[in-house]
Amino acid sequence: MIPFVAFSLKRAWQGFWRNSLMSLAATATMIFMLLLLSGFWIVQSGLTAGLQYVEQKVQVVAYMQETATQPQVDAALAQVNAMPDVKSAEYVSKDEALVRFRESLAARNQPDLTGSLDSNPLPASIEVYLVNPSQFASVVAVLQAAPGVDRVENIQQLVERVTTVTTVIRTAGIVILILVGFTVFFIIVNTIRLAVTSRAEEIEIMRLVGASDAFIRWPFIFEGALVGLLGAIVTLGILALIAAPLSSLMMGFFSVLPLEFGSLVRDVAVLVLGTGLGLGVVGSYVSVRSYLIR
């Protein structure tokens, strides 16, 4: 087994340099596609984190009546906290609501005229954060039926916009990843097919002397794996060179988002190596198999 693998690797290396122009062209295309794939994956990770962040900020707000008692508030909080679609719920008193309003005015550099008011006009409220924003209807129904609740803010349009954007971006991301993968796969298949065609006479001689299809196939599969591995290594090298400026850019752009850059680096490395080797091996196998079954 080991001599056969060593022989296949040697033949793959010879085949790679025998068709050096096509092999290097395939490797360069692989590098370009892997850079495109990894770049899109990084952007997609940031967008996904952004969508998750926005989803976490979607909340149902129930404004309390002026006459609402503390037992009524506690009962409403207990009801919504017991629901599986609720992530958390908190009570915001009139005084806390006024403090928040003043802080928002200060953040926007707008004048605070609330000091001239005779009383606090802001109502107390219950703010409910959801696990899944699309499941807001059941939470709204419970709050509307709770004693002491004056009205519940209508967030249907907000939820519809958030879920629509989420669906569109995630669907577009999957489609682009599939298109990029098929493009690389097509290039690898045709590159190995050209290599097989250029060695057609050699393959026929090997068949005549009794060589099995596996004996003929594996050097080409290793050659495709070599193209994928070389493309992945060069891609990771390029990404390592631009890692510092890219990280600072990502940290600045997604500074408020829950994006873990350590896991992102690991995911990109696994994606690049797995895609490069996988497409190289599968593309070579399909190309050689289609030739040998003629």
Give the helix proportion (percent range). over 70%
Tally of alpha and pi helices: 10
How many distinct folded domains?
A: 2
Structural category is alpha+beta
Strand order of the largest sheet: 2-3-1-4
Instruction: Please state the average pLDDT score.
Output: 76
Which H/E pattern describes the elements?
HHEHEHEHEHHHHH
Oligomeric description of these chains: single chain
Beta-strand residue fraction: 5-15%
- Outline the low-pLDDT stretches: none
What is the CA-CA span between the terminal residues?
Answer: 28 Å
**Main beta-sheet annotation:** 4 strands, antiparallel
Total beta-strand segments: 4
Task: Give a brief rundown of this model.
This protein has helices spanning 2-18, 20-57, 70-81, 94-107, 136-145, 156-198, 200-208, 213-241, 243-253, 261-292, and strands at residues 59-64, 86-92, 125-130, 149-152.
Q: What is this structure's SSE topology?
A:
Blueprint (H helix, E strand, L loop, with lengths): L1 H17 L1 H38 L1 E6 L5 H12 L4 E7 L1 H14 L17 E6 L5 H10 L3 E4 L3 H43 L1 H9 L4 H29 L1 H11 L7 H32 L2
Antiparallel strand pairs: 1-3, 1-4, 2-3
Which key phrases capture this entry?
Alpha-Beta Plaits; 294 residues; single chain; 4 strands; 10 helices; elongated; 8% strand; alpha+beta; four-stranded antiparallel β-sheet
